[in-house]
Structures are given as structure tokens and as C-alpha cells.
Write a structure and sequence with these properties.
206 residues; alpha/beta; six-stranded mixed beta sheet; two-stranded antiparallel sheet; 7 helices; 18% strand
Length: 206
Amino acid sequence: MARRPYAGTSRLLRLLLAVALALVPLAAAWDAPLPTHRRVTRMAGPPVVVPAKGAHAATVIWLHGLGDSGSGWAPIAHELDMPHVKWVFPSAGDRPVTLNGGMRMPAWADILGLSLESPEDEEGTMATRNLIHSLIADEMKAGVAANRIVVGGFSQGAAMACVAALTHEQSLAGCFLLSGYLTLRNKISSLLTDGGRATPFFQALL
């Protein structure tokens, strides 16, 4: 099970998110249709949502790591205390994970190995990418522009957020990776969009 970061990380994240969401102007929402991709990862249930305390001007979508849940990370929204930000913490459904002997657990995609030569679960990763894109589209339909949305996460969740940000048509306010990594490493260059190139990225090892 992926561990959570030490307490001091909250101050770093607050600074990161404040910078990402302050550097872009408020923009009119783009009325985007929901993605029409073939498959979307099934969540364990509705995301945990921590609404903005004040006027909702930005959204952070945060993905947990292997074996965890969205509710496990929700307290950080209160720690960071950004009144204009809505927080969305989705939870992955259970699936067999090859690396863990086929044991079923919350996972955004299968993990087949840890070496650079290990094959990757492209179908599962793209299905989670589609899920993240649909969550972004929901926020945009609610009136939040893409450049006021941050995606990110921890460990496997960070890897999924990275793929989603790199392949989104519009540039986002930012993407953060906490102990994350680049997945689909042999294919991501062919999936990269202009919006993905323009999105700021932050990575930290915890």
C-alpha cells in the first residue's frame, strides 16, 4: 500500500497550488462535451468532494496511490485551506494487480513489473486517463475554465494524472506528481497535445 507524505508536504503543496492558480487569469468556461473514448475506469463510488468555502474559482483533482482511496487524502484539503478551491478525490475500483500476485485492491491500472523493461497496462491507463478527462469536463461544464484546474496525485495516481495532463486538449493550471513516474513511456510522445506541452508540471519525491 502506498504511504502518504509527511506533514511538511502540505506547506509545499499549498505554495505550488497557489502559484499554479494565480499565474493564470480567470477565463470563461469552455463548454466541452464529455469525452467519447471507448472505455472509462470504473470508480469505487462517487468521488469525495470538498467544496470551496468561498466563491468557487478553481478545482484540484487528486488521485490516490495503489491500495488507497480518495477519502484517505481528503483531509489535506482542510490542511491547505484554500477557500476558493474545490477538491475532488476519486477512488479507484478494485482490480487484480499482477505485481502483488494477482491480489485485488484499489488500483488505477494493473502493474506488471517494476523494471524499465516491464510491459505496461496501456488499456487500464488510458481508461483512467479518460476518467480524469471526464472529471475535468464536468468542472468545465460547471463554469471552471481548464486553466483553473489542477490535476495530480501520489504514486500510481500521480502517474495517471501525468498522462491525463499531457494528453488533454487544453492546457491546465498545472499537474503535480508526488513520488510519481511517467507511464506509457514508449508511447506518450505520440499522445502529447499542444495543451499538454503548455501545462506546468511539478514533481517531488516523498
